[in-house]
Design brief:
The protein is an alpha/beta fold. It has three domains: 298 residues, ANL, N-terminal domain (Rossmann fold, 3-Layer(aba) Sandwich); 179 residues, Rossmann fold (3-Layer(aba) Sandwich); 125 residues, GMP Synthetase, Chain A, domain 3 (2-Layer Sandwich). The protein has 19 helices and 30 strands. The chain is globular and about 75 Å long.
Length: 643
């Protein structure tokens, strides 16, 4: 498969960028011609950011799975679509060809239909990183059901909240999952999440760990049993048929943390998301047919949706899927996988890189990494030290490092160098992709035109126009989408991130400017963590901020007013951490819990997180103006008790 829209030189990038800004309709219309459509669109782009209303390829009809599967069958049927590496290095590899993937997706699509799933229904997927997870995702897309994948580390309460918000009637899960040295009991977590739930009609359970599970008659069915009901003797046309979808029909809902306590369901639609993930995959990584692409993310996050499933498969690529973690059974696991499958592109998170750096060079001894051609990072800004270690020790200075910046809401990469085509700069995301129009604004929404003392333009990162992969709404609450992303600054999409721009027009992301933390590349709202802490019986009030963390990038620092005697009872801290784990999941556990007698509040009762952030960061100088505080003395007490 060739990619006529793959950018091959810096001059070509500049030309493409110019065209994409001057005439987005023509630019994206030409690219969309390379996909399979049931009916061509009437209009490429219609938008305004006030409502917001955004439509790409309006009137077009298609099915994304025909673009990920069917159109490749004539030329790639026996080529690996997915290579699966188990958590257990001794377990047999599974190589799923395009032909087999197509068959399995069609079969499971029929299973969903047999169990009552219809176009537009929401299907919650809570599974480990196994090929069946990809089958389930694509089967939903095939019949027009809206999938909502939930990361396997979330708690029953978190799942219950998401099920309720999406009004999901169907769940696909496993008995359990393997992750490093742990067995995660997925089905029993789902059972807990469903206590009191009157909406879910069917739970389909795949057998992975052989963990004993409770199966409720009339609600729970086994995946394997259901698959036997889809006969092999029928031609594919008679089952798992691809539903004709409108370009703007929802493809999936993916929940992400916001600055309020309730996670929001980001909605992506069929056509724009398909074009964007494919275009960014082919260009950022400079993918060549036959290469093995290894994205280490979990499909429970947007990175897995876009760069394990939809981007690579729509491009006819070979996507490597790994069930385990980088440090199990030892810290050489990634390098074993690279050597075993002759991986060409490795796409991972700065957190993983920093964690592996900590083990030194011993895990790299004797590992053949010569197949690597492109390295990528995702999830958070990468620090220079980690960038250089990755470049020198993993890429042997022969592989371009693409530092990709994007979000759940953007669908795919927005700012990044293109591997070996546009310049790289350590810890800078560099240049926007065609179609992406960034702007830095100050607090009032005015464009920043003056450099700071270091010679950079510095401000809040916004975008002036839509790209095909932009979110369309937040599920069931369009007003929330408007207020979150489009109301802060007039006619701009606000990313929530701060950034610098240099003389060359390169961007460096400096981190969140709202009450959202970026922990190990995953966004966690401070309000969500505070709500969980405050549910502990002994907690009067809490405030949560981020602080620099050597491995995670940002750690979670919690200041807690406690009604008992926390100074003599270390158990209180453990109880609070257990509460957060139960309500959100272990991913949101605070790294530090400091018990305090009060919090710095203004006279109107607002907690001054700015001050708490500075204390958590170890600021020794001035904390700024504290005269407006109700009780300025509490600040010194907190500072003296800093952990």
């Amino acid at each position: 498969m060739s990619y006529p829209y793959q950018i091959k030189s810096f001059e070509q990038y500049q030309e493409a960028y110019k065209q994409s800004v001057n005439d987005p309709g023509k630019f994206w219309g030409d690219i969309a011609e390379h996909f399979t459509w049931r009916k061509k669109w009437d209009k490429v782009l219609d938008w305004n950011f006030t409502q917001p209303k955004i439509e790409w390829f309006a009137g077009g009809k298609l099915n994304i799975t025909e673009n990920c599967l069917d159109r490749h069958l004539a030329t790639l049927s026996d080529k690996p679509a997915i290579i699966w590496e188990s958590n257990n290095p001794e377990e047999k590899t599974r190589i799923v060809t395009y032909e087999r993937l197509h068959k399995r997706v069609c079969q499971f699509a029929q299973v969903l239909k047999n169990n009552g799933v219809k176009k537009g229904d929401r299907v919650c997927i809570y599974m480990g990183m196994i090929p069946e997870l990809a089958y389930a995702v694509l089967a939903c897309a095939r019949i027009g059901a809206i999938h909502s994948v939930i990361f396997g580390g979330f708690s029953a309460q978190s799942i219950a909240d998401r099920l309720d918000d999406a009004k999901a009637e169907f769940i696909v899960t496993c008995d359990g999952a393997y992750r490093g040295g742990k067995d995660i009991p997925l089905k029993s977590v789902i059972d807990d999440a469903l206590i009191g739930n009157k909406v879910v009609k069917r739970v389909i359970v795949y057998t992975r760990t052989r963990t004993p599970v409770s199966m409720l008659k009339g609600r729970d069915v086994w995946w394997e049993d259901e698959m036997t009901k889809v006969t092999d003797t029928l031609p594919v046309e008679e089952f798992g048929k691809a539903e004709e979808m409108d370009a703007e029909d929802p493809l999936f809902v993916l929940y992400t943390s916001g600055s309020t306590g309730k996670p929001k369901g980001v909605v992506h639609t069929c056509a724009g998301y398909m074009v964007w993930t494919n275009y960014t995959f082919v260009n950022v990584f400079q993918y060549q047919p036959g290469q093995v692409h290894f994205c280490t993310a979990d499909i429970g996050w947007i990175t897995g949706h876009s760069y394990i499933i939809y981007g690579p498969l729509s491009a006819g690529a070979t996507s490597l899927m790994f069930e385990g973690i980088p440090t199990w059974p030892d810290a050489g696991r990634f390098w074993d996988i690279v050597q075993k499958y002759k991986v060409n592109i490795l796409y991972t998170a700065p957190t993983a890189i920093r964690s592996l750096m900590g083990f030194g060079e011993e895990p790299l001894q004797g590992k053949d990494l010569s197949s690597l051609q492109v390295l990528g990072t995702v999830g958070e800004p990468i620090n220079e030290e980690a960038w250089h270690w990755y470049d020198e020790h993993i890429g042997k200075k022969n592989c371009p490092v693409v530092d990709t910046w994007w979000q759940t809401e953007t669908g795919g990469v927005l700012i990044s160098n293109l591997a070996g085509v546009t310049p790289a700069k350590p810890s800078w995301a560099t240049l926007p992709l065609p179609g992406v129009q960034p702007v830095l604004v100050d607090e009032k929404g005015q464009e920043v035109t003056e450099k700071d003392e270091d010679g950079y333009y510095k401000g809040n990162l916004c975008l002036k126009a839509p790209w095909p992969g932009i979110l369309r709404t937040t599920y069931g609450d369009h007003e929330r989408c408007r207020t979150n992303y489009f109301a802060t600054y007039e006619n701009l999409y606000f990313t929530g991130d701060g950034a610098l721009r240099d003389e060359q027009g390169f961007y460096r992301i400096t981190g969140r400017v709202d009450d959202v933390l970026n922990v190990s590349g995953h966004r966690i709202g401070t309000a969500e963590v505070e709500n969980a802490i405050n549910m502990h019986a002994g907690v009067v009030e809490s405030a949560v901020v981020g602080y620099p963390h050597d491995i995670k990038g940002q750690g979670i620092y919690a200041y807690v007013i406690y009604s008992g005697k926390p100074d003599v009872d270390d158990l209180a801290k453990k109880d609070i951490l257990a509460t957060v784990s139960r309500i959100i999941g272990p991913i949101a556990k605070p790294d530090k819990v400091q018990f305090v007698s009060g919090l710095p509040k203004t006279r109107s009762g607002k907690i001054m997180r700015r001050i708490l952030r500075k204390i958590a960061e170890g600021e020794t100088g001035s904390l700024g103006d504290t005269s407006t505080l109700l009780d300025p003395a509490v600040v010194e007490e907190i500072r003296n008790g800093r952990l």
